[in-house]
Amino acid sequence: MLALSIREKFLDETLLKETAKLVCPLTYRFKVGYIVGLFVDQRKKLIDKPIRELTDIGYREMIRLSNIGKRNYPAVTSDMYHAHFLGKVNILDVHQDTSSDLANISGVDEYMTTLYGKNWKRESWTVIGWDWLERYFMPGDVIE
Question: pTM score, two decimals?
Answer without folding.
Answer: 0.86
